[in-house]
Amino acid sequence: MFIFLNYLIMKNPLYSALFLGLIFFVCSDKLVAQKIEPIPVKQFYKDRVTRNLQFLCKEAECLDNVIVNDKGLYIYPTSQKVNKPEFILYWREMPHFVEMLDKKKTEEIIDILSRKGSHYFYGINNTHVNPAKYPVTEYKGLKVALDPGHIASNFEEARLEQRYVRAEGKHFNQKQHIEFFESNLAYTTCLVLKEMLEKKGAHVMLTHEYGKSAMGINYNEWLQTDYKKDIIHGYKEDWYNREKFEYLMSGQAPDFMLFHDVFRNMDFVARAKKINEYKPNITLVVHYNASEGGKRYGDLYLPPVTENYSMVFIPGSFLGIEIDGQDGLDQRFEMLRLLVTHDLEESDVFASNIIKALNDELKVDALPKENNFDFATRFSILSDKSEGVYHRNLYLTRVVRGPIAYSEALYQDNIEEMAKLGKKDFTIGGIKTSSRVKDVAHVYFSAIDQWLQYNQQFAKQLDALYEDKYGDEDAFKEEMEKQEADSGSNN
């Protein structure tokens, strides 16, 4: 039986916690009659934290803020050699912390952890990992958050965002030039995917309307508001230094700077807030990729390339400077969350499904492991599950709770993709776009479908274990509740 369970755990690392909780019931009748010791919780969470840490810290300076020992997990505000720990979680407190994440806001949890200090949470009796929780396994009731990348609804706005493609017609043996912009592709991709998912019974939320930010306004509308309060907010959040702050407040700053340093950041915050309030089972951020270093020429034309790669970002890869010091409090908390929860593992599984579907269905390869791209070498950690999947500390991958994949599908400036993406041969939601978005939407649908099938296989294995030992899940839950009650009465 131990060999069989070990095999299942290795095949399904995402939900190994659930099996660890079952081991102490299934393997021995004697153990069922005894109070469960805290070893299962410690074993599971210590293994998870140790594994996740290698993908969450890009630099040694980040590792210097973390200690993992037999008692628990300690997060320091700066070097562990200088300060006292800022967050302390003991192993048997981990399930309670995960439960708090589902019910409370970040600010509330930070305050609770601060007041708790080095003490244990009062009344916590988590002596085992509770396996009586099924993953989402079907479309009916599935909650999906879709975040279409960028905002523009016309070419002028797309130029401000710097997310557009213009190519000379001579590359395609035609007089007419090719033009399209990424936000149009991303949004219509999400609309197609939304329809596909809802037909299956899923609930789908888009973070913004076409041509609008998640705040409900576009850039020009934002300029008509009291936008300087947002500039002040950005300075308090350390988005820019004092010199840039004063320039932004002067009224002399160009649109490009106001858009990218203030408005876009406000939009990111609003997107994350909407997603977390929605509490999705899974989140997909939709972007389209482009070759790194492509230089525009003439009338802002892009030269076509022959390469065509995809990549997907997931949480992780914190730099030392990002989590160190007083300004890094929020990032240290998110690192703590990612160390303890399933989010990192689940994101990796989902992202790997996307890369596989892109390759299988569109014949677009994952970005090769061996590359000299700046984002990969300086800011990212390659997943150990799939090429093309990178842990990276982007705002959305950091603060959105639950499994998240930030996808960059295919090269927009690939010569063959340019020809397809430049066509206006499909309309959805009143928006003209390229029919190529239907192909990409189907890729994401396939990836979500594979994610559900992965969960279904786990649920079947769990059913078999329940039936083998208890007859059904209800009997198992009764045993769990009895042991929790006994544990409480003995304290």
TrEMBL record:
Transmembrane region(s): none
Name of the protein in its database record: MurNAc-LAA domain-containing protein
Span of domain MurNAc-LAA: 144-426
Example GO BP: peptidoglycan catabolic process
Gene Ontology terms, MF aspect: N-acetylmuramoyl-L-alanine amidase activity
InterPro entries cross-referenced by the UniProt entry: MurNAc-LAA_cat
Endpoints of the signal sequence: none
Organism, scientific name: Fulvivirga imtechensis AK7
Highest taxon in the source lineage: Bacteria
Pfam families reported for this sequence: Amidase_3
